[in-house]
Specification:
By secondary structure, this protein is mainly beta. Helix content is 6%, strand content 37%. The strands form ten sheets. The protein has a six-stranded antiparallel beta sheet, with no helix packed on it. The chain has a five-stranded mixed beta sheet with strand order 1-34-35-36-37, with no helix packed on it. The longest helix has 17 residues.
């Protein structure tokens, strides 16, 4: 009897160990098809699947197998990418909720709803973009700037840690990133004069390992000790402007094991009024590469020095191989696509991926700097006749960007990026501003406007070597959801009109679409179970467009909110 009991205990322990998500599993996430363990379907963020079961010849037969509603009155924007592991789907939802779902049936296994305090200040809807898996934990962030780790099987809280003070304007909306055994997170709140940074924690306990600010002049820390200032105080920030510098890391990051670097995009400097912070304002509106072992900045590349248009540089840096080098591609909000050496940050190529960029005519490949058009910078309000409003300019793209939070995909098979783009501009002007803790810190006014009658959104297949657009599929409403591509020569993406679509990755011909019942502003995923390949996507209209879109928001105000996750496969 004792032997039998011991044997059962050993079997149970072994089963528990085997069910844990390990660093080795996360490292192979992009190649393994029976799970989705990280935001980006691999830490490099390519969102490419080697699966071919669903392909150009049969995708027209794709059929829904289940849908699960997030329920309740908590609708708003749903921007989450699901994770899949050991028969469960883990998906976050608006208002800092997370669900575990049986992938076979679509039935809810458990739900956790974070209790949010009064006074949270998310700039751009109550969204959440996803979770991270590690060991037996599923970890996600909340709108009141906390991290919560839950048991994957039960949904019980294992640990909870505070990221920062939500009353100062901090929040958190991104999916955490696991990199070389560390849990990496950024911060949201760039519109409130916060200071951006990247934190690394022990994912099993939540204990802080290192912290790296993304505004010049602030001290980094490692193991509770000072770890060097980011940059040089006052080198590119005048006076005390660096103390409220913004540069929030609100979209999360990517990681490439071959370089040992984590790549985080940084948001706009604070305030929007660039005349009060003359200088480049490092490391705002940039790509920042951080050595995960040391917590120090290995390199940075600034996409928009002295940003005056809210061109957050938070867009994902996706690493891939080109001409025998490991490089990274980034479709920036400012309308230019950049290719940088992933090890050194050296600029290799840069070109516009939208049809109109007024703030700069080009990117100088020798210096890496934009060729500004000074006439298209909003005017200094202190130089105006009344001192209350600077001269207004029309700028393209508008501040919502040539690309915003919606992640692109890269196919090693076609060697193309699939980029959800938007064609719009804005009237923008500067106003006087002073910092007050917890208050909006903009110093600007704006009105968004569409550029074309027949479309705002466009999914574009872009060659990173040449900058040429191989094909595009136009969309009436702005595109706000991410992209998935597969070895089956398919590209999947969603539209605010409610459709999940699939196109031929080589030609752009739309081969299939399905109406989900609400706008899709989230990235699709795919995985396999035995002989079956599945595709899933979260549906639920919202995000920044209806809140900040001005004339654009009026154009799409007929769209309905919702909250659900859909899963599809081929019929037998």
């Amino acid at each position: 009897m004792k032997r039998k009991l011991l044997s059962l205990l050993i079997m149970a322990a072994t089963a528990h160990v085997s069910a844990q998500v390990t660093d080795a599993m996360i490292a192979k996430d992009a190649a393994d098809t029976d799970s989705v363990l990280s935001w980006g379907m691999g830490t490099q963020g390519q969102r490419f699947s080697p699966l071919t079961t669903i392909n150009t010849k049969n995708v027209n037969k794709l059929t829904p197998v289940w849908s699960m509603s997030f329920g309740g009155e908590k609708q708003r924007g749903q921007e989450s990418q699901p994770l899949v592991y050991k028969g469960k789907m883990f998906v976050t939802a608006s208002y800092s909720r997370i669900f575990a779902i049986d992938v076979k049936t679509g039935e809810k296994v458990w739900k956790y709803e974070h209790r949010l305090p009064e006074g949270i200040m998310p700039c751009c809807d109550v969204v959440n973009r996803g979770a991270a898996l590690y060991d037996n934990l599923v970890i996600f962030g909340t709108l009141d700037a906390q991290l919560v780790a839950l048991d994957q099987n039960t949904g019980k809280v294992v640990w909870r840690e505070k990221i920062d003070d939500y009353t100062a304007g901090y929040s958190y909306t991104a999916a955490p990133l696991i990199a070389d055994g560390l849990l990496l997170t950024g911060v949201s709140g760039g519109e409130f004069g916060v200071v951006g940074r990247v934190d690394a924690r022990d994912p099993k306990t939540g204990k802080l390992v290192w912290s790296r600010p993304t505004v010049e002049g602030h001290m980094g820390y490692k193991d509770g000790k000072e770890n060097g200032i980011s940059g040089t105080t006052n080198a590119t920030w005048p006076g005390e402007t660096w103390k409220t510098g913004g540069a929030s890391t609100w979209l999360g990051g990517s990681y490439d094991a071959s370089t040992g670097l984590a790549y985080f995009g940084t948001g706009n400097p604070g305030p929007w009024n660039s005349h009060v912070r003359k200088g480049d304002n490092l490391y705002s509106s940039s790509t920042v590469a951080i050595d995960v072992k040391t917590g120090k900045i290995a390199w940075s590349y600034q996409n928009t020095p002295n940003d005056a248009w809210d061109f957050d540089g938070v867009n994902e840096f996706v690493t891939f191989d080109m001409d025998g080098k490991r490089v990274g591609g980034k479709a920036d909000r400012n309308g230019f696509f950049y290719v940088n050496d992933a090890k050194t940050g050296k600029l290799i190529n840069a070109f516009p991926f939208v049809k109109k960029t007024t703030w700069a005519s080009s990117i100088d490949l020798k210096t890496g700097r934009p060729v500004f058009d000074p006439a298209n910078r909003p005017g200094d309000p202190t130089a105006s006749s009344d001192g209350k409003k600077g001269s207004s300019v029309f700028a393209a793209p508008g501040f919502l960007g040539g690309k915003n939070q919606m992640p692109m995909a890269y196919s090693p098979k076609t060697q193309l990026f699939y980029v959800p783009t938007n064609e719009w501009g804005m009237d923008i002007w500067n106003e006087p501003i002073s910092y007050k803790k917890g208050a909006a810190y903009l110093g600007a006014g704006f009105t968004m406007r569409p550029l074309f009658e027949d479309h705002i959104g466009s999914l574009r297949a872009i060659d990173p070597k040449t900058g040429k657009v191989a094909w595009e599929v136009k969309n009436n409403a702005p595109l706000w959801g991410g992209v998935l591509t597969t070895a089956g020569d398919l590209v999947f993406w969603g539209t605010p009109e409610g459709y999940l679509k699939a196109a031929d990755a080589k030609t752009g011909k739309v081969l299939w679409q399905f109406q989900t019942g609400s706008g899709v502003v989230a990235p699709p995923i795919t995985w396999s179970d035995g002989a079956d390949q599945y595709v899933s996507v979260v549906s639920g209209w919202g995000g920044a467009v209806p809140l900040w879109g001005g004339e654009v928001a009026k154009k799409v105000n007929f769209l309905e909110q919702g909250g659900s996750v859909w899963t599809f496969k081929l019929p037998k």
